[in-house]
Structures are given as C-alpha cells and as structure tokens.
C-alpha cells in the first residue's frame, strides 16, 4: 500500500467512512460518516432521519446531505496581510460558519460551547449610521447571537490592540441610531474574554459533544450521583472503567450542567469537578 493510500485510509477512518478494514461489498459503497457530524440523512422517500442507529437502517436506502452553506452577508477574503478565512461546520444549526481571524474563530468556539442551542449568525447584514461630522458609515458585526436568556447581542470581535476610536465611534453611533430591531445590545469583545484557557475548555466540551454516547453518559450520570465534593477529573474517568470513553462521558456531564468546575481553570487531569449546585441536564 502506497503512502497516498495510507493517508487516504487514515482520513477516511477519521470520518468514519473507511472500508479498508473489512471486505469490500458487492454493491455500491455509500460514503457517509458513522459518527455524529454535520449534515443530515434522508430516506429515498425524502424523510429526514433524526438519529442514525447502526444496524437499524439500510445504508442503500439513505442519502446523506452535507452541511448547509453559510448565511453570512459577506464572505471574508481567503487571505490578506491582516487576516485569513476560517470555516467551522456548526453541528447544532447544520450550517457553515465563516470567520476571518483566529480570535473570531476562538470566540465562535467559546460561544457555541456556552450557548448550546441558540442561533449564531456570522457576518450579519451591515448596520448603517451617520458619523458626528455628518458623513455616512457602515459596520458589519462579526456575530449576532441569540443568548439563552432570549436577548440578541451583536458582537464585534477584535484584538485589544486594534480597538481604536474609529471602532468605538461606530459602535456608539449604531447603538444610538440603528440598533433597534437588530439587537438588544452591541458589544466589543477582546482577548480579555477569549482566553487560551476558555478556548481549550470549549474545544474539549465541543469535541465530547460531537462524540457523545448516550449509554456511556447514562452510566456516568448514575455514578456521579454518589459524589458530594470535588473529585479530580482523572480519578472520575478511572473509576468509570470505560477507558477513553469515560473521559468523553464525564465531559458530557459537564456540558449538561450535571458536573461543574470547583474553580474555573484550564481543564487538566487534576482539575476538580463537583456536582453542579443547580443541575440543568439538557439530555
């Protein structure tokens, strides 16, 4: 097997579509992921399949459709001296999201982890305003987010070094002139909110959310009912005896609001987790 075939095999295994590990079937091979991922399955009659249960449906009777394209009002250029385009397939909305910098991408990951079901609009339509000198101006927010409390917030994401008087003036004018009917508030976000620790934890939670196994989470949920104080993350995983799946199950409980951090910090094996003071299980 050549290097090219090995690389192809590894990529397909990662997507759950590899057929090298078993004899090739006589019929056609339908390339569709086995694990949770963006996209949707439909039957040949056009009926949407909410949950793909292995062994329950015939693959030759299902059609897989990929992620929907972004709804952004403008598509950032692929690469400039100041920025470059990043894309993320949002599992919740089954839609592609676009950003034009790493700080925007990090904010999107953190927001999706914190706001599990709310809609996140990337590059919403530009807001127009009149500057103090009478000239016309416009500004495109990076994100428009439906928050869990029902409010809608427009976010301008910038490195702190690039937050200047021009941006402050634009946001201030939009708040006074054209925010009504668009958002409840307009906020500038910098790296003071988008910390490396928050991004790391968001990536861990989002990864466990994509690889969630309901039976493992149920076992972990019953186990942690006996916990009354903080326990190290590593110890919880070892006590479950589910191997690597136990780590994903525990993180899913954190995502569900069953477990919480004793102290907000970067997630490590030594991080202390405790039962949430007000459990808010979503699944």
Can you give a write-up of this model?
- The protein is an alpha+beta fold and about 280 residues long.
- It folds into three domains: about 5-65, no CATH class; about 85-190, 3-Layer(aba) Sandwich (Trna Endonuclease, Chain: A, domain 1); about 195-275, Orthogonal Bundle (Arc Repressor Mutant, subunit A), CATH 1.10.10.
- It has helices at about 5-15, 100-115, 165-175, 195-210, 215-225, 235-240, 245-255; strands at about 40-45, 50, 60-65, 85-90, 95-100, 120, 125-130, 135-140, 145, 150-155, 185-190, 230, 260, 270-275.
- It has a four-stranded mixed sheet, with helices on both faces.
Itemize the secondary structure elements and their pairings.
Blueprint: H1 3-15, E1 40-43, E2 48-49, E3 62-65, E4 86-90, E5 95-99, H2 102-114, E6 120-122, E7 127-130, E8 136-139, E9 143-146, E10 152-157, H3 165-177, E11 185-189, H4 196-210, H5 214-224, E12 231-232, H6 233-240, H7 244-256, E13 259-261, E14 272-275
Parallel strand pairs: 10-11
Antiparallel strand pairs: 1-2, 1-3, 4-5, 6-9, 7-8, 9-10, 12-14, 13-14
Helix pairs in contact: 2-4, 4-7, 5-7, 6-7
